[in-house]
Structure formats: C-alpha cells, structure tokens
Amino acid sequence: MYSSLRDFIAQLENVGELIRIKEYVNPELEITEITDRISKNHGPALLFENTGTGIPFLINAFGSEKRMCMALGVNHLDDVTTRIEELFKMLMKPKDNIIEKLRMLPQLSQMASWMPKVARGRGACQEVINMNPDITKFPVMKCWPEDGGPFITLPVIHTKDPNTNIRNVGMYRMQVFSPTATGMHWHKHKVSARHFQEYKKLGIKMPVAVALGGDPVYTYCATAPLPDNIDEYMLAGFLRNKKVELVQCITQDVQVPSDAEIIIEGYVDPMEENILEGPFGDHTGYYSLADFYPKFHITCITHRKNPIYPSTIVGIPPQEDAWLGKATERIFLAPIKMTMIPEIKDMELPIEGVFHNLTIVKIKKEYAGQAIKVTNAMWGAGQMMFNKILVIVDDDIDIHNYKKVSQTISMNVDPQQDFYFSQGPMDVLDHSCSKFSFGGKMCVDATRKFPEELRTSNSNQVSKVTNSVNSKKLMEDFPEIIQVNDSLLAHGISVLFISVQKNRKNHLKEITPLLFNHSELSTIKIIIYLEANVDCSDIKDAIWRFTNNIDPRRDSFIVEEKDSKGISHIALDGTRKTKEFDNFDRDWPNILAMDEKTIHSIDEKWSKLGLGDFIISPSLKYRKQLYKGGAVAE
Q1: Structural domain range at position 413
Q2: Is residue 442 part of a domain?
Q3: Is there a domain that residue 235 lies in?
Q4: Does one domain contain both 256 and 300?
Q5: Which end of the chain is more exposed for a tag (fewer CB within 10 A), N or C?
Q6: Domain with 198 in it: what CATH number?
C-alpha cells in the first residue's frame, strides 16, 4: 500500500528502479522514443523533470515484473492468486454448524474493510482548484508520428449508471482537442459505453471524472477485467489491504481517490455529435484508425501542489502494458479455475499475442472433447470473448516454456482434426477481421488424444520432424517465396515460417497444397505465411505479426490426409489483407515506428540523459517494414 504516487516513486528510487532525467525532453514524440528504447531493454521507470511545463512526468513505472509486484505490494504475482484461492475456498466451504459460521465473522469483517468510503471535506487531490481549466498546461504526450494529437494514456475514468448509481472505473485513452475538450475512447463492449447509452436514453449529461496518479493499484484496477457491477475500488481495497478513501468532486457528482495527483472533472453530452478521434499508436503495435467517439468537456481540474503527471506508451511489444496484462493473467486465474472452468490448471498470455490474440491454457483432461468444452467456456467468459487463438495442452506441460508448448503441438496435433474454428465478437482494435469487431477464432487442441478423438482407430499423430529443408530449392521452385525460416525444425517443432510476395487473388490458398506436396515439406505440419517485408528469422516478431494479421476462420488452409497413417497439414495466412488480392474492404493500419528526425534528436541527446550506455532505436528495425502512407497503409 502506498500513500501516494510520490510514495511509490520514492520506493522505486530506493531500490534502484527509477532514473530522474533533468535534461529537457519534449513530450511530443521524444519521451516515446526514449521510453521505447528503455522498455525494450528491460530498463527502469523514468521521471522526466524538465518537460517544458514545470510538471514532472512519470513513465514505465509498471514496466517490469519487479515493479508490477511492488505496485501490488507482493513479492510474486502468484501471491495474489494464492490469496484469492484461499478466499474462495473459505467462502465456498460448507458451514455445517454455528461454530463454523462464527468462524466466518473475522473474514467477513475483513471483506467489509475492502469497501471504499467517501470522506468529508477535500482530499490531497484538491489542494489546487482550477475553475478555468486548461489541460494543455500538462505534459500530455503525442506518442507516435501519425497520432491524431496528444493523448492522456493512463487515465482512471469514473462513470456511474444513472439508474443504479453503481460506479465503474475504467481506462480509455483521451485525445486532447483544446484546453477544455478531449475525446472519450470507450469501446462499445465496455461498461462506461453502456452507461453512456443509459444517459442518452434519459437525455441528460453524463458526469465523468478522471484521476491521474495516487496509489498505483488504482491504475491496475482500472484495467482489470472485472464482472459488471463489481466495484474496482473493492478490488483495490483487497489488493492494498486497506479501503480506498474517496472525495466528492467540485463540479460533478462523482467521487474520486483523495490521494490522486490530478483530477479532471467534466461531462459528456450524449445528445452532442461524436467527434473524430485518432489515429493512435496502440498496444497491438499498429495504429488504431480514426473514428467517432464522445466528446468530454472539462469543467474543473484539481491537483496536488507540485503534481506529478503519470503516463505510458503502448506499441510493438514488449512495452510497459505487458506487465499490467501479466498481472491480470495471474490474478484472474483463480476465479476462472474456481467458479467456471475447474479443469484449468494454468494460463499464459504471451506478450507477442498482445493480450487477446493468443492464450495458452493447460487442463487436467479426463474425457474426450474436454479441450473443446474448455474452449467454448473460455470464449464465453468476460474479456476472453475477444481471444483469437487458444492453445490447450495437458497439465504436465510447462506452458511458460514456449519451446515445450511448440513441441507438444507438433507431437499431439493432427491439423485436419485438432484445429477447431468458431466466430464471434473480437476486440475493436483487431484490424484483420473482415467485419468490424466480428471475426474468426481458433482453438489448437494439443492435448493427448483419447481413441474417440483420433482421425481413425489406427491414427498415429506422432511423426518424425524433418530437421531442415532445402530453402534454396524451395525458393527456386516457388519464386514468390522471399525467405524461409526452418530453425524450429531442429528442435522437434514442425512449423515453418515463410515470407511470401502475394501477386494474385487466392494466391496462398492455391500454393498451399503444392507446397505440402513438395518433397521438402511433405512431413511438415504447419506453415505460417508472413509478408515479404517481414524478417521471418525473428520468431518473436513473426508471432506478433502473424497473430495480429490473421482471421483464423478465413485465413487457414487445411490439407487433409486420407491415409490414416499420413500427416495432414495446415497453413496460416499472417500477411496483410488487401482488396486486390484478398477482397478485403477495410483500411489496413500501419505498424508503429518513430520518425527519423526524432530518432536523430534522441541519439544526439542520449549522453545528457543519464541513462547509461547508448541504446539504438528499435524503430530503425521497424521503419524498414513500414507500408507506404501514414496511419492507413496504402
């Protein structure tokens, strides 16, 4: 538990997890460029003390497992899982007599202590009250070159249902348009968006308050995928072992944490036309494109004396947000196991899968079809409805060891039998869907199979993996192939990455059976296609691009094998989709890379920043992969 954001900063500094930067750095692009270099090299939190505004700027505060644990007040993220499991066991245990019920009283009293309370008077967040607010006086970042403007990226946003007064605390980016106006980028699946629709029915303005800073646990809780009507500040009270103290806003009927650094009060008028917001360099590593969202009108800004402005950037992984996602993975494992899907033993969200694109789950399998049962339950569970690719393995597999998981897939999967496809709601940031926020999903059942699950009673899914392929011959026979990565074959992983230049409609669908019938690839189970400008030798980047660019139901090509002892195959299209070659009608976003001017500026400034040895810009690598055009690829 921390008394304030500055208390957290002091603790980070005490353990060598924070560096103060006294040299002037521009919040427009330059902070992003520095932070991108630091976060991708596992560096510390950064406190920029000279932003040209007189307000210090904190970033990358959650950017490692150690700092995420510090924010939550634990030694290991699994410590929270253990606490939740113990709580659930206590609540679910049968109470057979009065003695057992009386033993519950201390725990019930402790649960009551997690509930937030509203204090009288003003809080530390209201030491300074600005009734003539100007958000542009704060060091709001422009993160990436094609962003529509500066964005508040770490806002803890408070709304409430006008009918029930039940609070919701969420995190949605806010583009700054003027001193008193921003966008409010809440997606249609989010609780605040539903609140907005209720205010629209009533024809009244919607009060909103935005908190920046305070105990770092508030920031985490705003991102947590809680069930509807569960107060995020109850979760915060549980995590910090102390209730959150709230105070009444000055101009809006909303309560906010008294220990926050900055509070932005205002309203959204649901009768007003939406405003064009974006583009924005998003956590997928691509730009989310401009669209219309509600306009937030600022009525008052309050803050501590000498406030600190917290922020974050998102982009090509790894970034700071990966650790917020890792905390959610560990914290919400226990409720999933104990209330919905008891056979689940562990869950992993690989960073390259940017939260929703790729999930690995291990289960205690006891009957045929159980992996598909788990898949359907997962896709119906809260934010897991956005999952695109779900890999299921047995409970003796270490799912945090990706090599072992990949070997297990190669060993246990019969592609024509064990890839399961569905469709449903997708994250609105998923650019690969043919239709906005609706697309295909795929389960890879890599569990050991019961006889009923095999293609025939004689099927033998275990196959010897070829150690390598003759890439030169393959590229001679198929000129559209630009690069081949067969490095995984030597590790018993039957996956081949191919960078390919598409030149006609249905190109990849047509060449897939020809490739698998080729003497070099006849024993390969899986091909992953990537674009010609993607270096497929970098497997982490290949997975990031592939999982972003595929709609599994549309972009998977299975080559069946009628021989019960033969190998079936699947190819997965992780390339960009276009109208010309794929009948794809939506705009395709560009990837994120910093402009050359900013890279050069930070190169020149690096020795003055106190950040140690020079780190080259990650964007130098990705600039080579940019499409023509701006945020929208041409």
Answers
A1: 321-449+463-582
A2: yes
A3: yes
A4: yes
A5: C
A6: 2.30.110.10
What is the model's pLDDT at position 338?
A: 63
pLDDT of 98 over the 70 cut: no
Residue 470 domain-assigned (yes or no): yes
Q: Which two tokens stand for residue 551?
A: 């709609």
Same domain, 300 and 357: no
Contacts of 91 (CB under 8 A, 6+ apart): none
Question: Do residues 198 and 161 lie in contact, with contact meaning Cβ atoms separated by under 8 Å?
Answer: yes
The residue among 324, 186, 207 whose CA lies nearest residue 266 is 207
Does residue 578 form part of some domain?
A: yes
Q: Is the preceding omega at residue 162 within 30 degrees of 0, hence cis?
A: no
250 shares its domain with 230 = yes
* 3 state SS for 94-122: CCCCHHHHHHCHHHHHHHHCCCCEECCCC
Q: How far apart are CA 446 and CA 418, in angstroms?
A: 7
User: What is the rounded CA–CA span in Å between residue 623 and residue 634?
Assistant: 15
**Of 459 and 594, which is predicted with more confidence?**
594
State pLDDT tens for residues 258-287.
999 999 999 999 999 999 999 999 999 999
Over 50: is that where the pLDDT of 599 sits? Answer: yes
**Res 490 pLDDT > 70:** yes
Q: Which has the closest alpha carbon to 269: 202, 179, 315, 345?
A: 202
The token pair that represents 216 in the structure block = 């770092």
CA angle 306, 172, 1 (to 5 degrees): 50
Distance CA 335, CA 316 (A): 30
Catalytic residue among 36, 147, 231, 282: 282
With CA atoms as reference, report the closest residue to 24 among 44, 54, 45: 54
Kindly tell me the sign of the dihedral angle through the C-alpha atoms of 372, 377, 382, 385: positive
Contact status, residue 43 vs residue 70, Cβ threshold 8 Å? no
Phi and psi at 458, nearest 5°, equal -100, 5
Prediction pTM value? 0.93
Residues 124 and 227 in one domain: yes
- pLDDT, tens digit, 9 for 90 and up, residues 324-355: 998 888 888 777 776 778 899 999 999 999 88
Mark whether 282 is an active-site residue. yes
